[in-house]
Predict the 3D structure of the following.
Amino acid sequence: MSGLLIITGASAGIGSATARMAAFSGWSRIVVHYGQDKDGAEQTASVVESMGAQAYVFQADVSKPKAVGRMFDKLAELKPGRIGLVNNAGMVMSNASIMDLTPERVEKLFQVNVMGAIEVARRTVGLMRSWGKGGAIVNVSSAAARLGSANMYIDYAASKGAIDTFTLGLADELAPEGIRVNAIRPGLIETGIHAKGGDPDRLERIGRTPPLGRPGTADEIAESILWLLSERASYVTRSILDVTGGR
Ligand code: NAD
């Protein structure tokens, strides 16, 4: 597929799976963005390149607008053409309930999951407009936005609720330009995010609770993201797709 696919948080998990599958499905130029895990990003990039696509590795902490701005300045030099964005970088924190949600914790989480995602989208739209070739955006939300995640991480759930609402409004704003904006809500997916958030046994404990009786894989999420980005979803915008095994 011609154009440039930008995937934030592509050093691991869903982002990495999406980059690898995108190269396999014909995207020829893929931005493998990472926050801290340079090795992970380079591994993703080498798989992308082994499939004949061009990978560009970029680092930026998405919670730092200046760092995001520097990255997008460099992306403009790539003469992107049509642009796809997978707005995926995100984090969870330790299991908690309301009295544990200190302002410091919630601020950090929202800086990454909400403000980071909005700034990445804003910069992407700027790039799309300056190249005039349009494109498509997929924001990565979570089933938590619907479930609320009581006694687990209601702050995370609220941050993803914000992503859902942001998706609806952004889709309306960009539809007249032919730019489609959708979101995906993964359920319980086998990635390192649970361990990084301090609960390595989460999937062992509740991974079989979805109606389909198992957790999902990063590849199963990547499939849906790439479909939403593709022309096969040309009449799909402002949609939020649950990929949760029925949860
Ligand atoms: P992961 O931890 O494997 O990957 C997260 C990616 O985001 C990593 O590449 C990480 O480097 C990047 N990232 C995190 N903070 C960053 C920052 N400040 N700046 C730049 N990059 C940063 O997790 P994953 O499960 O692949 O998660 C990807 C997305 O999917 C997240 O938005 C997450 O909330 C969402 N999600 C995951 C699940 C799940 O069960 N795994 C469920 C629902 C939603």
Observations:
- The pocket of nicotinamide-adenine-dinucleotide is lined by residues 9, 11-15, 34-37, 61-63, 88-91, 112, 140, 142, 186, 188-189, 191-193, 196 (CB under 6 Å).
- The domain at 4-243 is CATH 3.40.50.720 (Rossmann fold).
- The chain is about 45% helix and 15% strand.
